[in-house]
User: Which sequence fits this backbone?
């Protein structure tokens, strides 16, 4: 007989153990608890690239425009309608429990009040020092987030293509090789790490979201040192996986994983096709599609980090506001099936995403195909104490079909789903089980 007893074995703790981390993971699972419970985060790409609405940093790196023209955009970054309270409020309404904002992208322009001066310049390269905005835009945002109990994430690009001491510059031309001029690389590293330390001390971010680690090795970045420095100041800070093996969780980008990544993970996803604001990019993923993606992600134990790109004046495009508000209606109505849940049933038991309550006695079924007809669950070896619709006072009937009295193999469960159960975006059912979920995973037959 082939039975898998799926108690709490899908929790982050167990999964994390499958990693071979390069650092001491004591306490990591506990530290990650708020993150794995949070499920939804909002990513914000805001920078001087939103002045002309060009690709963030990549537009000069890939040669779509000269670096000098790109950098000129700083003169147009006004943030004149920036309302950090409204941003935080929109994020709260979406149901996100954390936000991650670009404090410095690959273009090297800081959005906070850095005191440090990069190679070849007399003053810091920031919107505070060089743009008409003239102020730190990160500080008030984090304050507003914290007033709403939303965790604060600092995106920081390790790459800094504008710094003359950084080797990489354009796609087809770099300045030097680290091995040929270690002193120059060290100058850059001191500057870059100094900025990370500034962020630590000034903001105590709950989460560091590094990016661009692919351009150098862990040794070159001094990733172990960066990790230790962050945790010294703020032992509870979570570090994303883009620190060459020294992060706490995986960050698949744009494409939904088919194989669930081992350990905690987060899918970062644009709401249209680009991270930052671009005027021509007005085709958004629909609320329906995003909710279906979100359900799939949390059903596999991940988080969704959904991106928005505000304009240079601080306004958020109406299409993005609408998306976040609609997602919020759905997350609000289905909160119990989302927050603090565990990954659901392994593939094969139900044609759609599922989640489980932390004690594994409540199973949530996310119906991909709307309603009408019934939902079929295979191999569920529990009694169902009750079945209902999440967010609506509708009790459901269910049938167990094909149970052979003398065989241990469970019958098929059909839950009838009436039309009135239908949610405009995605209907969710709740099954209370007689104990922690037990599954039959065999190949059929009688045992
Ligand atoms: C990529 C890109 C970057 C973007 C990031 C978000 O790494 O380099 O532009 O900020 O993805 O995940």
Assistant:
């Amino acid at each position: 007989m082939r039975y898998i007893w799926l108690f709490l074995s899908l929790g982050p703790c167990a999964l994390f153990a499958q990693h071979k981390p390069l650092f001491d993971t004591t306490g990591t699972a506990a530290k990650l608890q708020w993150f794995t419970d949070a499920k939804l985060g909002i990513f914000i790409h805001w920078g001087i690239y939103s002045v002309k609405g060009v690709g963030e940093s990549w537009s000069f790196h890939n040669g779509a425009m000269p670096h000098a023209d790109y950098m000129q955009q700083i003169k147009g970054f006004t943030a004149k309608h920036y309302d950090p309270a409204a941003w935080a409020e929109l994020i709260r309404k979406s149901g996100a429990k954390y936000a991650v904002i670009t404090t410095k992208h690959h273009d090297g322009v800081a959005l906070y009040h850095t005191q440090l001066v990069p190679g070849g310049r007399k003053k810091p390269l920031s919107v505070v020092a060089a743009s008409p905005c003239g102020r730190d835009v990160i500080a008030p945002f984090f304050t507003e987030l914290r007033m709403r109990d939303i965790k604060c994430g600092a995106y920081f690009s390790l790459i800094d293509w504008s710094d003359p001491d950084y080797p990489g510059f354009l796609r087809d031309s770099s300045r030097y090789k680290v091995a040929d001029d270690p002193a120059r690389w060290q100058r850059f590293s001191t500057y870059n790490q100094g900025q990370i330390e500034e962020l630590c001390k000034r903001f105590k971010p709950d989460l560091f979201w590094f990016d661009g680690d692919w351009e150098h090795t862990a040794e070159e970045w001094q990733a172990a040192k960066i990790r230790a420095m962050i945790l010294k100041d703020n032992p509870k800070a979570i570090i994303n996986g883009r620190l060459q093996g020294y992060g706490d969780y995986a960050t698949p980008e744009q494409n939904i994983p088919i194989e669930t990544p081992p350990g905690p993970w987060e899918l970062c996803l644009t709401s249209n096709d680009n991270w930052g604001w671009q005027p021509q990019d007005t085709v958004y993923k629909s609320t329906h599609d995003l909710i279906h993606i979100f359900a799939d992600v949390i059903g596999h134990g991940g988080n969704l980090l959904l991106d928005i790109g505000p304009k240079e004046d601080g306004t958020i495009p109406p299409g993005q506001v609408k998306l976040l508000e609609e997602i919020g209606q759905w997350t609000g109505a289905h909160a119990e099936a989302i927050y603090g849940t565990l990954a659901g049933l392994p593939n094969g038991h139900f044609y759609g995403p599922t989640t489980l309550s932390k004690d594994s006695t409540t199973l949530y079924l996310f119906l991909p195909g709307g309603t009408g007809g019934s939902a079929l669950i295979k191999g569920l070896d529990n009694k169902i104490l009750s079945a209902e619709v999440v967010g609506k006072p509708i009790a459901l009937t269910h049938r167990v079909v094909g149970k052979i009295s003398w065989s241990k193999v469970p019958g098929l469960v059909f839950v009838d789903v009436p039309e009135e159960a239908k949610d405009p975006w995605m209907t969710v059912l709740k099954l209370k089980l007689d104990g922690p979920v037990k599954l039959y995973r065999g190949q059929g037959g009688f045992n």
User: Anything to note?
Assistant: The first helix runs from residue 12 to 16. The chain has a mean pLDDT of 94.
